[in-house]
Design a protein that fits this description.
two-stranded antiparallel sheet; single chain; 12 helices; seven-stranded mixed sheet; Rossmann fold
Length: 333
């Protein structure tokens, strides 16, 4: 049995395996999207999707994050969940496991990634509960007021203009329901950039170099566009566009008529060292020993001797933003 999502959409869904490429069999798309150019998405998520899948599977990690977010919004027995920017299903499969009575519409702009998700759904016998749909989630293809939850795992920071996206999420939700998004936050990433600047200055003073020190220096320029967006030429064409200040998230919520809550998704004590060590391993296949002890001491100073544990909670590198759709006020109240 296959999940029939036709009644959820404003226009017919077509199978891209029949209308674009046989490799996309089982991936559906609104009629108006079929054959359209996939703008704002790079080769990593299109023709290189299989490599991305092999490298970045994190189902257990996302299972824990989705469980906590669901508990925080009081998500119990949802009937319909909409995921935006689902990719190959890193968070899709955990949500299906956590909410076994729910149906889930998994949307992404990349049919290549969705074809991988379809393969995973087939292998797990989940086609009766989840349908992969290739579409631009900022366009009003889904009907209003249908979803018990909308969520996204690291999607908003790819968008030059996240406001229409949040507006669309609020329209899809039932009154009182919530959308949640896991995203990078500016506060912690700005501190990480300061740490990397200090490490780089000290390395030059010592006359030292090496792959790990070069990687620290690279982070200064890599993080700059996400923090100083207005000053970065070609910012809109970048893949990672935002590390969100809380004030921007609040503006998005106010504009959409939603209530906002945010919380850090990691233990923030020790987060700067942990994050940089993870990046070294994930992006350069380097072990911690490649960075000198004096450099790690700088990370440790910011992690443990510069801010209180309470203040560190206000300096997250990554967090969850919850947007709750307000219920209409009764006219007699």
């Amino acid at each position: 049995m296959v999940f029939n999502a036709g009644g959820i959409f404003r226009e017919p869904l077509l199978d891209l395996g029949q209308h674009e490429d046989a490799a996309f069999a089982g991936v559906l798309s609104p009629k108006g999207e079929v054959g359209a150019a996939r703008e704002g998405v790079n080769a990593v998520f299109l023709e290189n999707a299989e490599d991305y899948y092999q490298r970045y599977q994190g189902f257990n990690y996302w299972h824990g994050l989705c469980r906590e977010a669901g508990e925080r919004i009081g998500l119990k027995d949802p009937k319909l969940i909409v995921e935006v920017g689902c990719g190959f299903g890193n968070a899709t499969l955990p949500m299906l496991d956590l909410h076994q009575g729910a149906r889930l519409v998994a949307t992404d702009i990349s049919p290549n990634l969705l074809a991988i998700l379809k393969r995973l759904l087939d292998a797990r016998g989940l086609n009766d509960r989840c349908v992969p749909v290739a579409m631009d989630a900022q366009k009003p293809y889904l009907k209003e007021g249908i979803a018990d939850c909308v969520f996204g795992a690291a999607i908003l920071h790819h968008l030059a203009e996240p406001r229409p996206f949040i507006d669309m999420a609020m329209r899809m939700l039932k009154p009182g329901a919530s959308a949640f998004f896991f995203e990078p936050f500016e506060a912690g990433n700005a501190v990480l950039r300061v740490i990397c600047q200090e490490v780089t200055r000290e390395a030059k003073t010592r006359g030292e170099n090496g792959r790990a020190l070069e990687f620290a220096e690279l982070q200064i320029s890599e993080l700059e566009p996400q923090i100083f967006r207005q000053k970065t030429e070609g910012w809109r064409d970048r893949d990672d566009k935002w590390a969100f200040p809380r004030s921007v998230l609040q503006d998005l919520a106010d504009n959409a008529g939603a209530d906002l809550r945010v919380y850090p998704i990691h233990d923030n004590v020790g987060q700067f060292r942990r994050h940089f060590a993870y990046q070294m391993k994930a992006y350069r296949e380097m072990e911690e020993a490649e960075l000198p002890d004096w450099a790690w001491a700088i990370f440790d100073r910011y992690d443990r001797d510069t801010f209180s544990p309470d203040q560190l909670r206000d300096l997250p590198m990554a967090g969850c933003a919850i947007f709750t759709k307000r219920k209409p006020r009764k006219w007699w109240l």
